Structure formats: structure tokens, C-alpha cells
Amino acid sequence: MSSGRGGVSLPDIRGSGSSSSEGILTRVTSSINNSPIVYKGKQAAGDVAFVANKLLRSTGKAAWIAGTTFLILFVPLIIEMDREAQLTELEMQQASLLGAPPSTLK
């Protein structure tokens, strides 16, 4: 800027150092972000996240189906088998107390 009385004109120094370095950083960052390798990396990361999300959801659904099927079908069967084993054991104890020869169950 000139001083108005004539003299030497000096460049405006306010922020010139930071703007040139920001300009360089902005240009380098912009060129890195726009490179095809970064673009393909971001696209691959997005694809991996999408597949992982779908896999997690389908795994959760499969676990829910397997868990409820187990509860409905197999837990009552296990309880009934345990009752049968207890009843058989009780009959064997009663038979041994009464003096009857122990029978082998098939």
C-alpha cells in the first residue's frame, strides 16, 4: 500500500504467510482427496461397511431364529428326558428298598 505522500509502496503483509501456507495445504489436501487411489479406498471402505452391516443383521436374525427354535422344540424335550430319568431312578430306589432284584432297563 502506498502512504499517500509518495514514497515506497509496500505489499500488504497481513496474513500473507498464513494464506500462502493454507493455500498450499488446501491444494495438497485437495489433490490427495481427489486422487483415484483415495477414491477407490473410500469406495472399498464403504462397500466393506455395507457388507458388514448386512452380515451383522442377517447373523442377528439367524441367531434369533435358532434361539427361539431351540426354546420351543428342544427345551421341553430336555425337561421331559430329565423327568423320565428321575422317575426311573426313583423306581430303582424303591425296588432296591423293597428287596426286589434290580432290573436292568433297556
From TrEMBL:
The chain crosses the membrane at residues 62-79. The keyword Transmembrane applies. Keywords: Membrane, Transmembrane, Transmembrane helix. InterPro entries: Tom22_pln. Residues 1-23 are annotated as: Disordered. It comes from the Eukaryota. The keyword Transmembrane helix applies. This is Primary active transporter. It comes from Lithospermum erythrorhizon (Purple gromwell).
